[in-house]
Amino acid sequence: MPDRYELRAQYTPGLLVSGPLVSLGYALVGIDPAFFGSLAAQAFGGLTVATAFQLLAASTCRQVGSWLMDKMFDMGRAFPTTTFLLDRDASISSERKARIVDKIKHDFGVDLAGRTSDTKANRQLIHETVGQIRRKFWKTNEAVLMRNIQFGFAKNLAGGAIVALPVSLLILGVAWITGNIQAGAVATGLMVWYASLILYGSLAMRSNGPRYAHTLYDEFLAS
What we know:
Layout: H1 4-29, H2 39-72, H3 80-83, H4 94-108, H5 120-137, H6 142-178, H7 181-222
Helix pairs in contact: 1-2, 1-6, 1-7, 2-6, 6-7
């Protein structure tokens, strides 16, 4: 069974992204019930196709969302969990940074002292080291899990919408060629919907990133 993270951060964005397109496809193409041969076969076949499509949608959202995250945060080197520990960053106090660096050395044997100036090599080391903290708390800490869900939902929602937007544009083109005014109007509405999801998801990622970093370090220091 899917866990809370998968349900809220993966499958829900997939449904929000794919649902409108699937509904439009059913309305435009139509489905002949006789195609399935019987009520039982229809139910089994429909469930199988729907499940497979939902898994595909969730996977697509996750993959494209991860690509977007890498672009936005420079492969993790510009993510708040990394930048918070840089000398120039004032998001947390110098005393708190020192406590985090000391605990990282104690728990993981990685000494970040003298490695917090803003260079690409230092950012990479911090990012790789913080990855050990994330793995320590992955799906085992309630507060960090909720932040993961919030960020993952936004990331996957934006990622899926990036794929769905050009699909809606393609549908609009087909509707224009075939003279289907109704389909064209729906496709235009979907384009606005997906553009809004991309904007919302991107802004939510920017907003939830620092919150995730604060929570991760809070729980790390308390552990």
